[in-house]
Amino acid sequence: MLKKMNLPNKLTMLRIILVPVFIVFMCLPKEWVWTIWTAFGVFVVAAITDFLDGRISRKNNMVTKFGKIMDPLADKMLVSAGFILLTGAGVVPAWMTAIIILRDFFVNALRMFGSDKGKDVAAGLSGKIKTIFQLVGVVLGLFGLALGTTNVFGEFIASAMSMDILTLMVNVTMTVSVSVAVIATIWSMVDYIIRFKDDINVEE
């Protein structure tokens, strides 16, 4: 199957494969400092593949139905794993992670309705913006953990004076990125509701 895939789709599959690798390293003992740095590196590589597969497919007209379906799925797997593990590490509030994951379940259902009607189910602008801020938020959250500094959502509000400049910058940018990601997640959900509402037939 891999031999028949174009490069963007191979990058998408690589991102999916990297998700369990990321999870394994995040679940290893935190006393082994290299594990969180490895998890950070794996996540960054996976996030880069998201940028590359979209850019290559659009530039070289290599957009496929497989890519339209699997690329958003790969993004959801990566982002969900990142937010769940950051919540477990005490970095991101659970309610934010819940919003992000529940939105994905809901949008997947809407996309299925649209797919049945033959509509284009590729990610829209709101979905792409949402994904960018989610990935940036997770990368910064992981970077803070790897540094071994205080890296809890909004921590700078109460502890800015006691933070060194790097810790402060990471915490501020992570907090802003995750906040924008949640707002963009809600915006994206509303966008998909408007986009596919006419395809939902409760009588079928």
Structure description:
This protein is an all-alpha fold. The protein has one domain: Four Helix Bundle (Hemerythrin (Met), subunit A) (Up-down Bundle). The chain is 76% helix and 0% strand. The longest helix has 32 residues. The radius of gyration is 18 Å and the shape is globular. The protein starts with 6 loop residues before the first helix and ends in an 8-residue tail after the last helix.
Please outline what is shown here.
With 204 residues, the chain is an all-alpha fold.
Write the layout of secondary structure elements.
Blueprint: H1 7-27, H2 33-59, H3 65-88, H4 94-116, H5 125-147, H6 155-159, H7 165-196
Helix pairs in contact: 1-2, 1-3, 2-3, 2-5, 3-4, 3-5, 4-7, 5-7
Key terms for this structure?
single chain; 204 residues; mainly alpha; Four Helix Bundle (Hemerythrin (Met), subunit A); 76% helix
Q: Biggest sheet, open or closed, and with what strands and sense? A: none
Number of strands: 0
Helix amount, in percent? over 70%
Q: Report Rg.
A: 18 Å
CATH class annotation: Mainly Alpha
Our count of domains comes out at 1
**Reported CATH architecture:** Up-down Bundle
SS element count, helices: 7
Global shape: globular
pLDDT < 50 runs, ≥5 residues: none
How do the helices and strands follow one another from N- to C-terminus? HHHHHHH
N→C terminal distance: 35 Å
β-strand percent reads: under 5%
